[in-house]
Amino acid sequence: MSIRRRRFIQGSAAVGGSLVLGVNLTGCGPTPLPHAASADLQPNAFLQLSPDGQITLQLHKSEMGQGTYTGMATMAAEELNMPPSMLHIEQAQFHPDFIDPDFYVMLTGGSSSIRTSFEPLRKAAASLAYLLRSAAAEQAGVDIATVMLRDGNVYIGDLEVKPASLIDRARQQELPEEVPLKAARDYRFIGKHNARLDARAKVTGQADFGLDAQYPGALSAVLVRCPHFGGSLKSFDASAALASPGVEQVLEVDGAVAVLAGNYWQARQAANKISVEWNKGPLAGVSSRALRAQRHELAKTEEGKQVEEVGEASAAVGERFEAFYDVPLLAHATMEPMNALAVASDDGIEIWSGMQGVQLALDAVERATGIERSRIRLHNHFLGGGFGRRIQNDYVVEAARIAQLSGKPVRLVWSREDDTRHDFYRPDATALMAATIDGDSISSMQIKAVAPSIFGQFLPLMTRSLLPRWLPSGIHDGIGDMAAGSDPSASEGLIHTPYNFAYKRSNYVMQDVSAPLGYWRSVGHSQNAFFMEGFIDELAHQTNKNPLDFRLANMDPESRHFAVLSKAAELADWGNPPAGQYQGLAVHESFGSVVAEVVNVSADGGRIRVHKVTCVVDCGQVINPDIVVGQMQSGINFGLTAALKGEITLEDGAVQQSNFHDYQLLRINESPEIDVHILPSTNPPSGVGEPGTPPVAPALANAIFAATGQRLRELPLRLS
């Protein structure tokens, strides 16, 4: 989903004696700021200057390790001409000015944080800087051109003025139609600042995650949920649990059973003693094997929706070559389990947690509890991993409902088993990849992707926040059903590819039956890069071409893909791996960034060892080089986990895996050497949180083929 970036419209209104400027989203005027303070200078929702001289940045994007905390501060600090470390940073409450233009709601995802904030946040900071400079110029009777900000102070020539002393006069200043921004040649911090502002607090344990939130007298809560997707509670016996040490209450909460105790361990142990009977629900009897077989049949028998056609079908001449590719369901496996602390009172409800979608959480809690949104207060914290999982707010709603029904302040904590068995999963998917080979060239590529729809499940959550509240719930579900067959995530990465074949066509066939689905790091690109770049390697082999030469020969030499892939091959010394190692490569564009990766592997007795990954990324203007490198490394290890280990399987409509012993992650001793190179660019910033993940699975599979001759078309990769 994407809409045009909203223009930063200057307007003003008196809020608590402050000047307020913002983004007009509705035509009804600016919304009062949720963090307004009468003594502060608040030129917009993002920034405020207090009488003690502190400049506060409202962090409107969640920090889950991807670097928004530092990146946002760097962009604002650049226009204020002060080190990012001088800013005080607070996690923002919901405000319309914080709505992401890609998603219509205040949300962190899609690797959009830096990209969509680059201009608006700099304009917000430049507006504050202009008001202070204008006030200082008026006070001194000089031209504003002679006034500058530097390192937290205002300077008129050699005269130093404290910004706080200018607050009252600054409120009276008018902004020009367009506030000038710094030229790239004058950047002090963008592209150069390499320290993470949140690193020390996280290393020393001082950082506050959702799990760290405290409230006097709060009880620990765990939920016993139906193991079968869509199932329901038939009956339960909690007598043994109620007799357990520390247990204060057991109650039914929306089809699950909640246990409240003095601490988590007491609640968890008691929950294990509850005898429960479940109705299995609509997925009874459904297995992963059956779903995979159904997808293969759909690929053979259904045309689905055509999502791209380039060229004329008559150009598809030669011998047809085709192959099935498959990927399984995947869990997010965040290191911090789902959790939320909720306190209900006559005044409303207050919740502390880590969320990717604060606005969606507000709406979900309001609908679940019946408490008006104005009486709900959410406190967002650092997230111990998100990867898309914390866009969903089931855990926040659960905590709110337990607090509401029990009348107690409660901290709900999921176990690792809860996380694994009640996730919103990356879809299992199949692609029927086909091409026509005319001599030693490819005349066409024809793709049919078959997968359940994330969009169909997620869109109703969005529309409930966006559309009038009086609309019946069925309307939202109907919108989701209508949109499901056109799910853009099912085909992203399979269309608009860099390969110049005479004819290209991509179709999407939706599979109706599915487990709960959610956005997983890099979304559809995570599987579609594997399908596309694995098959491209096969076509190189079918035409007796070197995989690198084949790709470059079928690309525009002026394209970003060509440049990135060429550089990666050069840095990896393509074709000359160390003795006993073999190489594979892949290139893929996602979230506006192009990434190429070369993987060096060895294979010994069925054991795959990844020695090195060389990564080159073009992500536009870099805000913080070290964070870009860190996110490429993180995305590569995340992708290697999925490629080598990740698999969620269903039996009888229930997840079979439960913890890290049977849903394994890549361990430190298995992580390869990773060499990251950033291509310089003057283009606006594009995503970095996710684009490192998609190319690594196909590059690895292609390297395994080079090493063993086995073409592996299913994840996780297993040698026969």
For the biggest sheet, the summary is: 7 strands, mixed
User: Oligomeric state of the chains?
Assistant: single chain
Derived from helix and strand composition plus strand pairing, the structural class reads alpha+beta
Molecular shape:
globular
Which segments are poorly predicted (pLDDT under 50) over 5 or more consecutive residues?
A: 1-29
Number of strands: 28
Strand content: 15-25%
Q: Roughly what is the average pLDDT, rounded to an integer?
A: 94
Spatial sequence of strands, sheet with the most strands: 11-12-9-19-16-17-18
Work out the radius of gyration.
Answer: 27 Å
Helical residues, percent:
25-40%
Count of DSSP H/I helices: 17
Distance between the termini: 41 Å
Provide keyphrases for this structure:
single chain; 720 residues; alpha+beta; seven-stranded mixed beta sheet; 17 helices; 28% helix; globular; disordered N terminus
Question: What would you note in describing this structure?
Answer:
With 720 residues, this protein is of the alpha+beta class. It is 28% helix and 23% strand. The protein is built from 17 helices and 28 strands. The strands form 8 sheets. Strands 11-12-9-19-16-17-18 form a 7-stranded mixed β-sheet, sandwiched between helices. It has a 5-stranded mixed β-sheet with strand order 14-22-21-20-15, sandwiched between helices. α8 packs parallel to α9 and α16 packs across α17. The longest helix is centred in the N-terminal third of the chain and has 28 residues, at 113-140.
Summarize the structure.
This protein is of the alpha+beta class and 720 residues long. The chain is globular and about 80 Å long.
